[in-house]
Write a structure and sequence with these properties.
By secondary structure, the protein is α/β, with parallel strands linked by helices. It is about 40% helix and about 15% strand. An eleven-stranded mixed sheet has the order 3-2-1-4-11-10-5-6-9-7-8, sandwiched between helices.
Length: about 300
């Protein structure tokens, strides 16, 4: 199989991490990587990897300054994503691991999506779900890039059910024979039986009752303030969080250097490191390649089960 790796924003840490991440990923002998970016970066990366990679050269653009994002860098990041998406559809690549981008800078130059998750869903088709795989926690988000004030309205039966299904599927794809899925409540103490909110009692728990099956275990809505600790202690394999920070706060606390962002529900595996561009430390040699290495390895693993 061949995994495309995009450069991300050239002024951030993504490009400098790729060679070390590829080496650390420990891919099988039959797996290959193809790096997508500008000529200058590709020349350096190929040297660091002793030529053990393919490249898709987007041209000798130059002029990018580490730590100083620019419209030109955002355009390069978008062009790399476009090349990766098209390459999968054309049969050149089997999966994609994406470098981090600056969403704000990309939007300044016409990027029409809240993030890379939505971009690849648009290019490939499918209904995406944002999920994260870490050393300690595996988290699926029911909603993600929306304001907190919009979460309750977005949590329809279909939205909630899709997150549960994707959590179950992720558990199977990670090798669990009978995945145990824990679901966060929306309100403090998961509503405290209606005292702190009625959504769990009136809507969410009845929905969860109707989705239980023989091949996996599914909780009622549980207090989010204890559910993640219970998952870390081995009680659950995957946690369904109902909104972005409910899931990402605990995950990044315990798995900041190891978690991988994975888009579920698409025809090709797509992963990325669970960190941003980190412009402030770009080029200083202090950024960790661990999450990017895990993203590349997880792309290989998930592609086997797509």
């Amino acid at each position: 199989m061949k995994i495309a790796i995009t450069c991300g924003d050239p002024s951030g840490v993504g490009p400098e991490l790729v060679p070390a991440a590829v080496k650390a990923a420990g891919l099988r002998d039959e797996s290959e990587v193809a790096l997508i970016g500008d000529s200058d970066w590709l020349d350096r990366a190929r040297d660091e990897l002793d030529g053990n990679c393919e490249v898709l050269d987007l041209g000798r653009l130059g002029g990018f300054e580490l730590g100083n994002p620019s419209p030109a860098g955002a355009k390069l990041a978008i062009e790399a994503m476009e090349a990766a998406a098209a390459g999968c559809q054309e049969g050149k690549f089997d999966a994609v691991a994406t470098g981090p981008i600056s969403k704000a800078k990309c939007m300044e130059v016409g990027f029409a999506f809240p993030g890379q998750t939505e971009f690849f869903a648009d290019r490939w088709g499918g209904e995406p779900t944002m999920a994260f795989v870490g050393d300690h926690l595996n988290v699926v988000l029911a909603t993600w890039h929306i304001p907190l004030s919009s979460v309750e309205a977005a949590l329809t039966r279909d939205c909630f059910g899709l997150a549960v299904k994707r959590a179950k599927d992720l558990g199977f794809r990670l090798g669990r024979k009978s995945p145990r899925v824990g679901v966060c409540g929306l309100n403090p103490h998961a509503g405290e039986n209606g005292l702190m909110g009625t959504q769990e009692k009136q809507l969410y728990n009845p929905w969860l009752d109707s989705w239980r099956g023989e091949k996996y275990e599914l909780s009622d809505c549980l207090p989010a303030d204890t559910l993640f600790a219970r998952a870390m202690n081995g009680e659950f394999d995957v946690v369904v969080a109902l909104y972005h920070d409910q899931g990402l706060g605990p995950l990044k606390t315990v798995d900041f250097d190891s978690a991988v962002n994975v888009t579920l529900g698409l025809p090709f595996a797509r992963t990325s490191p669970d960190h941003g561009t980190a412009f402030e430390i770009a080029g200083k040699g202090v950024a960790s390649a661990r999450s990017f290495a895990r993203a590349i390895k997880l792309a290989e693993k998930l592609n086997d089960k797509c």
